[in-house]
Amino acid sequence: MAELKFIVDTEEQMSLEEFLRGRNGVSARLLKKLKHRDGGLTCNGEPIRSVDTVRAGDIIVLDMDENSAAEPNPSLCVPIAYENESFVVFNKPAAMPVHESHRHRGDTLANYFAYLYPELTFRPVNRLDRDTSGLCLVAKDAHAANLLQGSFEKVYYAAVEGVTDAKGTIDAPIARERESVIVRCVREDGKPSVTHYKRITYNDKYSLLEIRLETGRTHQIRVHFSYIGHPLAGDDMYGGRLTEIQRQALHCGKLVIKLPLSEEVVTVESEITDDIRRLF
């Protein structure tokens, strides 16, 4: 979406900044960025300052045109589970990173997004580890990214080793391992972290769980279940075995999204992947 359009719908006298930030959820960061771009903010086709007064019927346009930094890669293919004018939900496969890194260039979700939407900047709202499969929500502009923060719920499905309780809550603080920039651990001085789970089925090796998070710490699900003695199958970083699956058995299977500037709620779902299903 190259531009964002608003129509002033109030007789109340207010500045453009008050209208955009207070009534329409435009972030201070985005507004500041647009103020310094030629043509970034217009009213009825003419440039306008954020301090100028807007009036009923004025048409306000935010120029959101940006270029993606990632190189487009048309050879990739990631299914789209849902899309509207504000965001897109991809059904990301395992083994695909979300962002480029020094080890991954050209093979990420960012590269596929750049191919599909060459005029947009890649703005993932929920980030998945490379080997976690499932739903990844990507905003199409900075305004949508700001509005979507805290406006959706994620439901994960995981296969963990052993037989867990039928349901439970793990409330244990998570911190960075002191000797590692990647690995996390449960430690008293960590950040508060809460994970809720419900067992769906189990066998003599594994339990299949539905998981909801109160907090969103790095590797939270992986760390918490390792901490209680039920590491994720295939998660060798946190004690899981690689005998029957070669990646952590974790899948983001549901997003419940409150649409920006609307009371409508959209539920997007993704079936558990075959490699996890085969464990049962």
Question: How is this structure best described in words?
Answer:
The chain is of the alpha+beta class and 280 residues long. It has three domains: 3-63, Structural Genomics Hypothetical 15.5 Kd Protein In mrcA-pckA Intergenic Region, Chain A; 66-148, Pseudouridine synthase (2-Layer Sandwich), CATH 3.30.2350.10; 154-252, 2-Layer Sandwich (Pseudouridine synthase). The chain is built from six helices and 18 strands. The longest helix is centred in the N-terminal third of the chain and has 9 residues, at 16-24. The two termini are 43 Å apart. The model has no long low-confidence stretch (mean pLDDT 91).
- Major sheet size, sense and barrel closure: 10 strands, mixed
Which band does the percent of strand residues land in?
A: 25-35%
CATH superfamily of the largest domain: Pseudouridine synthase
Question: What is the CATH T-level topology of the largest domain?
Answer: Pseudouridine synthase
Structural class from helices and strands?
alpha+beta
Helix and strand sequence = EEHHEEEEEEHEEHEEEEEEHEEH
CATH architectural type of the largest domain = 2-Layer Sandwich
Estimate percent helicity. 10-25%
The overall pLDDT, averaged over residues, is 91
Per DSSP, the total helix count is: 6
Task: Return the domain count.
Answer: 3
Straight-line N-to-C gap: 43 Å
Radius of gyration: 22 Å
Low-confidence stretches: none
Number of strands: 18
Q: Look at the structure and give the CATH class of the largest domain.
A: Alpha Beta
Silhouette = elongated
